[in-house]
Amino acid sequence: xxxxxxxxxxxxxxxxxxxxxxxxxxxxxxxxxxxxxxxxxxxxxxxxxxxxxxxxxxxxxxxx
Length: 64
Prior knowledge:
The chain is mostly helical. The protein is built from two helices and no strands.
């Protein structure tokens, strides 16, 4: 199963919501760290997808 950047971004949003709703400092900090991790994974996946699309575009142009 392939994970999409939308999934990662949704998880980051959930962590941000959890952090805002928490009254416990440790829980809030953990949720904020998790949010940053999800955002990092989403960013990495988006950059990979963009690079792959660019590579495919160049390959298609070279094949024509």
